[in-house]
Amino acid sequence: MSPYEFSTPMEVVTYQDNHSSNLTDTGDCWRALHASIPRSYDSPSLISTSTCSETDSSSIRSLSCAKDFVDNSHSSPPTTSPCSNSVPTSSQVPTCGPKKTLYPLQTVDRLTAPYQNLPCAGNPVHIYTWSLPKPPILASLAGLDPQCFTNTDRGFGLLFSQPIAANEYVCRLPLYLTRGMARARVRHVKSVILSEEMLEVIIAAHRVIAELLTNIADLSHVGQMGTKQRLDALSHANSEGRPRPCAQNVRDRFSDLHFDPVKSRTLCLVTFFCSSTNDIDLEAARTLLKWNKGRINWNFQEKAVPGRLIQPNHGIIPAYPVWLSQVPMAYWPGVLVRPCHLPSNDPGLFAVSGASSKTGLDPVPPNLAEKVCAAVNSEPSSNSENAVPIPVNPVFSYVDYFAIRHPAIFCLLDRIDHNLPLVGCHRLTRHQNAAQVTAGMRKNNSIEPADDKEFSYLADGCILHPLSAWLWFQMSIIPMIVYQMTRALSALQLFTVLSHELGYSCPPPSQSTQSPSSVDPTVLLPDRLDSPKCMLSDLQRSTAADVTAEENFEDEYLLTDEASRRVEPSKHVPNPADLLESLTLLGARDAVNLERLELLGDSVLQLISTLTVYSGSHEDADEGQLTAKRVALVSNSNLRNIAVRLGWQNYCTGQVYSPPDHFMFPCYDLSSSVPHRDSDTRLFVRLTDKSLADMVEAIVGCFLQHLGLPAAFRLLTYLGISPYANPSSQGKEVGAWDQLLSETQQNNRHSHSTLFRPLEFRPTFYLPDRNCPAGSISRLPNGTEKDDLIERQSLRLVGLQNILGYQFKDISLLIRALTHQSSPQTSLFGSYQRLEFLGDAVLGYVITIYLYEKHVEFDPGQLTESRSNIVSNNSLACAIVEHQLHPYITHNQPAFDTAVDFIQFILDTTTSLSDQLELLNQEVLKGLRAKILADVFEAIVGAIFVDTQGSLSTVSQLIHRLLDSRIDDYLLRNPMNPLKSMHILHPRLKYTEGQVEEAEAGKKYKLCATVSGGQVFTYGATRNEARLALARHLQVPLRTIDQNQC
């Protein structure tokens, strides 16, 4: 056999599949080496290396002799890989939960047919590519030596028949790599006209790239038995009734796809692009086609590879298959190899940094040699009569070591050149998690050399991948580029649609959502560097590597980013980058999510829907009837129906993106023969109704945050929750809460700071209480008695108005707000139920806005818990008694006085406002009725809101006058409900309601709980009292008070 004639890689793999995982003849292998390998060491002394670490004796196995310090990347190969071709996968799970619905994955009009077409010869074609950080920085982020990336002026581009955006700079998107985050900038490069021959080459190369990327872990790319060959072998074995040659299930993902540009989610061609010439790299495409032709024609049964030297051309290997020793050593840096001895379930590829200073004849460290010797002596063959004596202090070369440890290398001994240098290389990951914000998060992450990750292998034992390490890296991030670009353009599409729908003077959406307009903003996708701190935990915030990578980016892009941030929002719609936050669910594991905006949107949705119901209902409607009407507007089912009707589910990002499960190469669609195609995760996403409802609320919150309440109101009108008047009726009706929409709120520190933007026309509804001041008082016997009664009440309520700091224009509103339905006065004034219904929504809105703007560091959980404490019935009841508002309430409830007495007692007992709330929480659980007090507080808020014609600033001043001290104390000390504390301390606690027995007479409720393996029974006059007793039994910290003094 000639020096350049090699055994077929297929032969190696066959042997390795049978024996590499069950090596039982290590001693015989060593003895064969001992007798046949020439010993020509330059020096008998053993040298140490800077790239090795001491081997743990616990890793020594009799099957593989020892764990190699230069080969530890595959010592424990994964049994399964998310990127491997094994089955089953989540993309073929046919069922979904009962509360989830299948929706098509995100598609964007500007990326699909009919707007896009397959590029044609003779017509303009638009080239888009992406810029990345400088190659040395990028290599460090990928955990590689900078020498692993060569010819970095070459990469990939996307060819579209139509422009996808008006701006040259389309979007900025994050890539979360192995050791940090890199930002990619997608940009339009140029427009070109292709000839028939050029287009034919590009399409043919596109198909090859599609297979390389879709089956990125296929071993046939490196001359070994790949997925297709394994499937053929399995089929042939099954047909002959023979045992399966491979126990691992395999799957050819590319066979699931078929070339169908019209039905694909992304209609473009992927091609090679050269940044130095700023043009398509047709020579690289032709070289790849030459490699692919060699792969197609290669017969895996051949015994040798033609002996010749091979040189990469434009970063691509032109022949198939090729061993690294066939490539001149000057071209080693930057090539991509696979050591032939790796097990088939480890699809690892390694980027070569260059030739090592050691050759195959150099000795391994003595400690490793001794462990290899110990492993050889432990074999049964060592006790045979013909065993060759093993020296006491053995000396093993690197060739010895690899040949003893790996049968695949042992089979190649007759052609291995012992004088060749070892090859230094680094494992290159596929970055399948590059869309997850948690990827690349490690302690003390920094940009530093990756020498500690370097491995050394025999050049004669490494097979080449056709692409260079740089091109392969660029190809591996294409799924992330397409996914994030789709998200950016999806947000831009929603921005365009809403601009048309809410702008009143734009062309129809059917014409403008596809064609880019001249005002398309550059979409800067949020990432770890610019995401609000409240979105990310301490473990997910930006690292030093993230900052360094961005600081070393080209200045022109950094300046463009700053200019994009300064773009003023649309008159009617927030910027697409802001909309992205409201379109991203928590489950997507992105840098932002909709949780905070959902809380904000829920508050304004409750406010506007409450006003809609309040103004459109009869005055005699009670709280239950009003609530039922509001629920019909704001329920999850209604919001979900609105989202589906408008097609908003298409914009929702609701899952963690995984290329093996979700990516389809551009111009390809899923074949109709694929099992469970109608639920395949490459076509569909599972979303709950609540997820879509939360998204609608978050979009409303986004409008409120960036454009103010009038814009949010306009959006709700578009959604059909709050109808506008006919524009022709403008001036005929005077809205009773025009001030709510028209007052400038920037001077009020407790309200939203966005200036008002005028509406085109007024709302239809009005507040009957204010437009009809007499209200229910008109039912009085005669006008004289009515006037006398109002005058007497006005005198009685002077002190209350002084406490409130507000003088009512219509005192009947305040009278009604203080009248409980048990009072005989309801026949004259009505009860507070309607005003309470209104005030509850206004109070929730004001407090939510305050917390959202003042405490930007609060995560959604903190916001929800803080608001819950502040607006709770018990907190409002304490405020009523604290400010001495309760004497003005008219009622006929004995329990009212009991509640007032107890609250006054705890106010006198402790000055801690949080302690007061916790004590009242416990007492209410025992049966104390304090809700009337809270209802009156909300009714007073509603009355002032009506009396001021919807002035949020006036209402906000009242709320903060009465609650500011409590707000500050609650935020500082975070008072806890005892039942909530119980479930936090005992998250697995479960209890059921038991049957009260005769011997337990006097106890109405009984709870049965399992605690520490035993049964615990607690009792109470109410369910909550029984639960409180359980909390006390579990020693949950509770506030105590001596009620004998009460």
UniProtKB/TrEMBL annotation:
Entry's Gene Ontology BP terms: RNA processing
Pfam families the UniProt entry points to: Ribonuclease_3
Domain (RNase III) ranges: 593-708, 797-949
Region (Disordered): 74-94
UniProt cross-references to InterPro entries, sorted A to Z: RNase_III_dom (IPR000999), RNase_III_sf (IPR036389)
Protein name: RNase III domain-containing protein
Record lineage: Eukaryota, Metazoa, Spiralia, Lophotrochozoa, Platyhelminthes
Tagged with keyword Lipoprotein: no
A single MF term (Gene Ontology): ribonuclease III activity
Keywords for this protein: Hydrolase
